[in-house]
Amino acid sequence: MNGLINRAIACFVRDSYGEPLWQEVMAGLDIGEAAFEPLMPCAPEVTARLIAALAARLSRAPADLLEDLGTYLVAQPRSEAVRRLLRFGGVDFAEFLESLEDLPDRARLAMSDLDLPAISLHMQGAGVFRVEVARVDGAGLRFGPVLLGMLRAMADDYGALVLLYYRDGDATREIIEVHLLDPAFADGREFDLARGRTAP
After folding, report:
1. Domain ranges of the chain
2. Comparing C-alpha atoms, which of 126, 135, 139, 127 is closest to residue 167?
3. Maximum Cα interatomic distance, the chain, rounded to a whole number of Å
């Protein structure tokens, strides 16, 4: 799985910060090209080192960088397949949230090597949800901040007004609190179930 993740990180950094910065960071790491082949296995430690080096170079917290990666995966046109996978979860943001527990299985259907951590959703009250993401030992990065960025981008995609809070959780889980203030706050991005068709 980490080869796919590393390739996504490479695309994110090149698109967001430019090729020279990417090459500068890579020059300081002893990482072979195979680490960025989507279907090639790669040690989780390589991903952890890559994130740490990028965060240090950009003077940013690793969690903030991972959140931006999650937003990129949804909002960037080259990642349309990720957006489509998520949009199939529901017709509005509330339905999308309710489908999050199925996301790891849907992701595996799309790409068998993509093994996302388990996700559980808990209703806290009217419009308030708690999303729990299982921690995976040796994964190389935390998925919670990535999911936080994806949720933020998906709220924009649906036109929903939300407040999101990341909680580090404990040794077994990460927690994201979602406050859905207005599910139809703005016009969402156009989405057509039929791939390649232009909506009228």
Report:
1. 2-60, 70-182
2. 135
3. 50
Name the amino acid, one letter, at 168: D
Q: Half-sphere exposure (CA, 13 Å, Cβ side) for 5?
A: 25
Q: How far apart are CA 164 and CA 16, in angstroms?
A: 23
The answer to whether the CB of 176 falls within 8 A of the CB of 144 is yes
pTM more than 0.70:
yes
Number of other CB atoms surrounding residue 113 within 10 Å: 14
Pick the CATH number of 70-182 from 3.90.1520.10, 3.30.870.10, 3.50.50.60, 3.40.50.1980: 3.90.1520.10
H or E segment to which residue 158 belongs: helix 143-158
- Segment 136-183, tens digit of pLDDT: 765 557 889 999 999 999 999 999 999 999 987 788 899 999 999 988
Digit-coded pLDDT (tens) for 85-108:
888 888 899 999 999 999 888 888
**For residue 126, what are its two tokens?**
């009217």
